Amino acid sequence: xxxxxxxxxxxxxxxxxxxxxxxxxxxxxxxxxxxxxxxxxxxxxxxxxxxxxxxxxxxxxxxxxxxxxxxxxxxxxxxxxxxxxxxxxxxxxxxxxxxxxxxxxxxxxxxxxxxxxxxxxxxxxxxxxxxxxxxxxxxxxxxxxxxxxxxxxxxxxxxxxxxxxxxxxxxxxxxxxxxxxx
Length: 182
What we know:
This protein has a single domain, classed as Jelly Rolls. Helices cover 9% and strands 43% of the residues. It has helices at residues 161-164, 169-180, and strands spanning 4-6, 13-16, 18-22, 25-29, 42-48, 53-60, 68-74, 76-83, 94-100, 105-109, 113-119, 124-130, 139-141, 158-159.
């Protein structure tokens, strides 16, 4: 049975996927049918061999703003989401949770919710279903160790230069808001 639970951010939902187990192993169905999404445009996979890797906190703006369905198909990750939508009742709020190959969860993120994660196990693989193509000109990063005050579970971290030099929350919120009026 699929169950959905809110994560404190408007429009975000966390759903348990169907898991069938037999002598051959597990068959897990992560499905976008559990959520109301526009047509899916692409699927992406992030392969993270090192424990403590931080990716994000990323978002895209119009016309490439995207809905995402995210799951962890191998390993475990500490997930962070931030609401950038100026008209949202949860604007500026942050939520954290864990996705793993053992909890069979997937999360739906509407447009305007930024996302990042830290790997908790080696060889963690994160799977994304996206409603928009990647657009480098419309893609932004919030500094994951900047002013958002996230308590990352692991002190040893690996962060890309792009993410380390990412913008503050207020800069990101302004960029997202500006994209809505263009």
